[in-house]
């Protein structure tokens, strides 16, 4: 007889580490975990809660922002402690869950003197103490190094015990909280890894209830920096759970009744849109078919499979990406829309590490003749802009009925997926463009303030690029590529190849190739009006952030502000100086993820050093969060000096928090056990700063093939279909980029909306890049950049102006200083702003 696996229910308090805990549970215990939110209205009545709980062997009450005394912060968790005797269920509380347990049974919860977020401490536990027979869940556990994420702590009267009596009393319940049996402490003298100036000498970090089956941990067992011993504690806990259930004859219901708790792995975007299909098919508005074909109104592109054509040729060393872009324009004339994703650090050995030294640059051709999708958060509408003579045709659809923007994009790309293109080229054709920070806010359910009355500008703008040039800087070749319907003649590509040949001939004749038509004087800013963030205001915003951290509402907040530069337009010919600005910036700040994007009314000029997310056709995903910045100066001018400076708790904690957050985002798609951190806190050199980075990788599960299906139950098949993910799932699940928000993501974004006054970050803090028909994608975080809108000065007459927006900021933690943060923001700002001064 098949013995059913035990089940665990995870109660999620909107934390950004929840999926990591679920992964730890599932990989350690071989018990599937389901999850509900603390405020799920389905469980308003105790009866409904009980109906769900009876299916599980145990409950885990998770961590989260806020205070355990606040109903809205803990919700269902609080009700778990007071279940009647016949309904009681074994529990593990983690962090907020720990604090809630302590508060329920006589402990106080107060603020720590110094919040501890992303700080690793050695803890002293009852299992290390030979004189104590009941080691409980710490039995057989060695030395524990544990990551803390806490502003608050449980007070069971520990500080009133005189030092000389401490060792004798530390494992005994106090009079005020007789039900709470201490199991572990973080003590100041044990904090060998923690030199953050801890004032809190005795912090209770693990307890069990004296009579009920409740255990809890204040530290984070799932953090990447908590050591391996942690899994032993989880195993021990589950043994206790099973022992208790057996002893009390508590047998979880195994009936076929559907469970309400969800799998932590998200339903895939493809599945979501397929679920909607039967409901929507036949509707004239259905957007995945001809309605939004890639070729415009007349084409029959849905019936015609796309074919990839490529011509590869040598690229003379003297020809740069800028030359290629300008050479293309010799053939076509300067067009408004442009997309260039450049590894502008390709030739600078010191900038970035080998994996981002910049092998490829990608240039879109004929963007203006391509279909473009714009999506706006306020309206939920997508508009398809079809190329055409004169004005473009625009079709608009409200995407709410189709499950929103992400299922639409996933489905659109999947329908055009091809295999077998040039494997040396990272991009064969597909979407290129940008998204804003605000689309990320929409995705995580945070209301955007101050938006309603502003102009409707896109939050996502993607061109469907079918002709492109990929520059391979390592092999010194270029790939001139075209995606075309099977029956199309290839004249466009051929013409381009001829043209590229000309480029070579010209180069051979004249080794210093300068296409005369585009040779402009170097960018000169001319007079401009610069509005900078007010220094004192910025510092006071840092303090506001720290107050939110002290109260337990956030662990880290990435505060930002915007500078504007307004100046006369002074570009000759195109009436646009943005390309000259880009050319100057790429030299001034070479970066692995530089980009120049003109789409619709937006222009983005970026020298981003930070990869947001890359994925390949096998479903391998990589995020590369950056946290920890030092300015290059005379005293700090080597990698070694910068590494030493960043090797301190403040910087490491900043980085660690985002690594754990990104792991959570990835786990939500890739599933338990499928996320790794191959590089943790490595310092890299850039032109004007040193940056600490980490690499987090995940593997999307492959789709099940028909041979395996034969051996699967219906439930397993359904589930496999439900999680048939692609890179876009990870993309959507990870916005806004964790390095630009702080943790936990949702609460931190809400707080930042308040502190930043609802000011739109727009393209800054968004992402730019591509996702292609070959199933690959690569996106950067839009920082160290500037953007502007063509329509911002539409009403100006006479002297036309333009306004560049430059965002900059940095992560604020409990260990930040207002002046230090303001200076860090200015350092980042100066790299771009310097162009105008
Ligand atoms: C906020 C910015 O950068 C972000 C913040 C960093 C930090 O706090 O150290 C580092 C890289 C970026 O993720 C910016 O450049 O404006
Ligand atoms: N990680 C957590 O659960 C944090 C709990 C609580 N908000 C605190 O800051 O102490």
TrEMBL record:
Q: Does this entry carry the keyword Iron-sulfur?
A: no
Which key words tag this protein in UniProt?
Folate biosynthesis, Glutamine amidotransferase, Transferase
Question: Pathway, per UniProt?
Answer: Cofactor biosynthesis; tetrahydrofolate biosynthesis; 4-aminobenzoate from chorismate: step 1/2
Q: Give the GO terms filed under biological process for this record.
A: 4-aminobenzoate biosynthetic process; folic acid biosynthetic process; L-tryptophan biosynthetic process
Q: Which organism is this protein's natural source?
A: Amylocarpus encephaloides
Similarity annotation? In the C-terminal section; belongs to the anthranilate synthase component I family.
Q: Which GO terms describe its cellular component?
A: cytoplasm
Q: Where is the Anthranilate synthase component I N-terminal domain?
A: 327-477
Reaction(s) catalysed (UniProt annotation):
chorismate + L-glutamine = 4-amino-4-deoxychorismate + L-glutamate
Query: What's the name of the protein?
Result: aminodeoxychorismate synthase
TM segment ranges? none
Q: Where is the Glutamine amidotransferase domain?
A: 10-163
> Signal peptide position in this chain?
none
């Amino acid at each position: 007889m098949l013995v059913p696996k035990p089940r665990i229910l995870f109660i999620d308090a909107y934390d950004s580490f929840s999926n990591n805990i679920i992964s730890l549970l599932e990989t350690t215990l071989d018990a599937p975990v389901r999850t509900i939110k603390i405020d799920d209205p389905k469980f308003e009545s105790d009866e409904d809660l009980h109906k769900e709980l009876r299916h599980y062997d145990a409950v885990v009450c998770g961590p989260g922002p806020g205070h355990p005394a606040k109903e809205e912060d803990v919700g269902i968790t609080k009700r778990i402690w007071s279940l009647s005797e016949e309904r009681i269920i074994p529990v593990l509380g983690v962090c907020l869950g720990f604090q809630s347990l302590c508060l329920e049974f006589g402990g106080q919860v107060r603020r720590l003197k110094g919040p501890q977020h992303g700080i690793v401490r050695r803890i002293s536990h009852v299992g290390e103490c030979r004189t104590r027979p009941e080691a409980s869940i710490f039995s057989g556990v060695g030395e524990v190094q544990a990551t803390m994420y806490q502003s608050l702590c449980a007070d069971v009267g520990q500080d009133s015990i005189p030092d000389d009596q401490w060792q004798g009393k530390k494992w005994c319940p106090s009079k005020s909280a007789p039900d709470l049996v201490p199991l572990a402490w973080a003590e100041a003298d044990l904090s060998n890894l923690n030199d953050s100036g801890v004032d809190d000498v005795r912090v209770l970090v693990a307890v069990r209830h004296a009579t009920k089956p409740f255990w809890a941990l204040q530290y984070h067992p799932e953090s990447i920096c908590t050591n391996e011993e942690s899994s032993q504690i989880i195993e021990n806990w589950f043994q206790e759970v099973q022992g208790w259930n057996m002893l009390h004859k508590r047998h979880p219901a195994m009936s076929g009744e559907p469970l309400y708790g969800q799998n932590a792995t998200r339903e895939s975007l493809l599945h979501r849109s397929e679920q909607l299909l039967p409901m929507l098919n036949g509707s004239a508005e259905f957007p995945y078919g001809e309605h939004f074909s890639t070729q415009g109104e007349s084409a029959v592109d849905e019936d015609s499979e796309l074919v990839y054509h490529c011509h590869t040729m040598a690229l003379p060393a003297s020809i740069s990406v800028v030359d290629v872009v300008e050479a293309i324009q010799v053939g076509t004339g300067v067009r408004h829309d442009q997309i260039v994703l450049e590894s502008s650090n390709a030739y600078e050995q010191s900038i970035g590490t080998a994996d981002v030294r910049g092998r490829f640059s990608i240039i879109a051709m004929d963007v203006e003749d391509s279909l473009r999708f714009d999506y706006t958060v306020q309206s939920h509408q997508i508009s398809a802009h079809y190329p055409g003579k004169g004005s473009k045709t625009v079709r608009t659809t409200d995407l709410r009925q189709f499950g929103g923007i992400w299922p639409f994009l996933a489905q659109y790309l999947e329908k055009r997926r091809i295999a077998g293109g040039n494997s040396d080229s990272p991009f064969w054709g597909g979407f290129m463009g940008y998204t804003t920070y605000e689309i990320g806010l929409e995705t995580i359910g945070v209301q955007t303030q101050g938006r309603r009355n502003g102009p409707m500008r896109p939050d996502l703008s993607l061109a469907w690029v079918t002709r492109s040039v990929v520059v391979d800087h390592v092999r010194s070749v270029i790939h001139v590529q075209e995606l075309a319907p099977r029956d199309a003649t290839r004249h466009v590509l051929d013409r381009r190849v001829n043209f590229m040949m000309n480029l070579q001939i010209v180069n051979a004749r004249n080794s210093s190739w300068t296409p005369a038509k585009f040779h402009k004087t170097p960018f000169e800013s001319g007079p401009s009006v610069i509005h900078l963030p007010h220094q004192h205001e910025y510092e006071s915003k840092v303090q506001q952030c720290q107050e939110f951290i002290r109260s337990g509402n956030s662990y880290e907040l990435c505060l930002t502000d915007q500078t504007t530069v307004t100046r006369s337009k002074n570009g000759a010919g195109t009436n646009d100086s943005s390309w000259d600005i880009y050319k100057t910036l790429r030299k001034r700040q070479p970066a692995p993820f530089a980009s120049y994007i003109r789409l619709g009314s937006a222009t983005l000029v970026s020298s981003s050093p930070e990869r947001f997310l890359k994925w390949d056709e096998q479903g391998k995903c990589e995020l590369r969060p950056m946290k920890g910045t030092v300015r290059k100066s005379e005293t700090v001018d080597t990698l070694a000096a910068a590494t030493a400076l960043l090797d301190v708790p403040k910087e490491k904690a900043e980085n660690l928090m985002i690594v754990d957050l990104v792991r959570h985002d990835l786990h939500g798609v890739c599933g338990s056990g499928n996320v790794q951190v191959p590089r943790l806190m490595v310092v890299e050199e850039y032109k004007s700063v040193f940056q600490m980075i980490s690499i987090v990788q995940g593997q999307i599960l492959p789709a099940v093939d028909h041979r395996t299906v034969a051996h699967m139950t219906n439930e397993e098949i359904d589930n496999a279909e439900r999680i048939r993910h692609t890179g876009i799932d990870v993309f959507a699940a990870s916005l806004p980029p964790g390095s630009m928000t702080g943790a936990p993501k949702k609460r931190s974004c809400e707080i930042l909306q308040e502190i930043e006054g609802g000011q739109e970050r727009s393209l800054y803090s968004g992402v730019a890049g591509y996702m292609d028909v070959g199933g690959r994608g690569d996106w950067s975080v839009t920082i160290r950049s500037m953007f502007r809108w063509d329509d911002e000065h539409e009403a100006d007459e006479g002297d036309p102006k333009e306004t560049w927006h430059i965002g900059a900021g940095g992560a604020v933690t409990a260990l930040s200083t207002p002046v230090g943060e303001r200076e860090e923001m200015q350092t980042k700002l100066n790299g771009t702003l310097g162009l105008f001064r």
